[in-house]
């Protein structure tokens, strides 16, 4: 079997003040795979993505292991993280408009992918790459200013920059949240086709079902369900995933059911299942024992009937 593009084991991310945003997460992304992380706001998706990119704030603490292409990133010196980021791991930001300097031409931004590593883009490479992302007349259009491009075109340019060095993995944190719904699908199709493997952060379950091979659902910093994306979202097994799916409005499906209560704060110490306080099928042991991940679900009610 070929080596995973990304292997995360026992990952914890803590912020000053005791906030534990990610708690003991294990996951891996295979070469060629698109893996999505889903969950409510505050569940730890961005903290996990930033840990992989080596972009956590300096006072954040990371424990456990993150391996990309055999290189351990947790505890690695800044020099190693800089060498990996942009070369082994590409990054597609959330909002393409703010990612561009309005006073620099679009081509300058894409060429930064080389300059950031003290390299010069080979002749024609920037235009070729941007054309591959579906921008017509790329060589000419690269001389435009960012305001002359639409949000969808700019996001395609950031994808071009993210894959310039043929990384093992692309990390994209809500890459379509600033785009119209009709553009989101086509940009994700481009992103997926351009990425050798993809860690996609999104709260849009419909986009995940369509554009990810597997999904991991995070709740209170813990992974509660992992599996085939379309399958998990069509027939969720964890009560939290089921509640998340039921809270999405769907045409012709009546009113969505809002999720009652609030997710736990990262500063809370929760001895058992993080979802216990909101769970419709809660058992006695859920309050005291963290359910282990079994067969893709971390839930006492599912794994013990
Ligand atoms: N720099 C920080 N210092 C302290 N706490 C932080 C910091 N960044 C994030 N947090 C907290 O960690 C928790 C997880 O945040 P994170 O941004 O990773 O979640 P998320 O699922 O990506 O949410 P969103 O979708 O809103 O971005 C939240 O409670 C957040 O307030």
TrEMBL record:
Assigned keywords, A-Z: ATP-binding, Cell membrane, Membrane, Nucleotide-binding, Transport
Q: Chief location of this protein?
A: membrane
GO MF entry, a single one: ATP hydrolysis activity
Q: Which CDD domains match?
A: ABC_NikE_OppD_transporters (cd03257)
The UniProt entry lists membrane topology as: Peripheral membrane protein
Question: Which Gene3D superfamilies does this one have?
Answer: P-loop containing nucleotide triphosphate hydrolases (3.40.50.300)
Annotated SUPFAM superfamilies: P-loop containing nucleoside triphosphate hydrolases
Output the superkingdom of the source species.
Bacteria
Q: Check the record and name the InterPro entries matching this protein.
A: AAA+_ATPase, ABC_Ni/Peptide_Import, ABC_transporter-like_ATP-bd, Oligopep_ABC_C, P-loop_NTPase
A single GO CC term for this protein reads:
plasma membrane
Q: Where in the cell is it found?
A: Cell membrane
| GO-annotated biological processes | peptide transport
ABC transporter domain residues are 6-245
UniProt similarity note? Belongs to the ABC transporter superfamily.
Q: What is this protein called?
A: ABC transporter ATP-binding protein
Give the taxonomic lineage as stored in the record.
Answer: Bacteria, Bacillati, Actinomycetota, Actinomycetes, Streptosporangiales
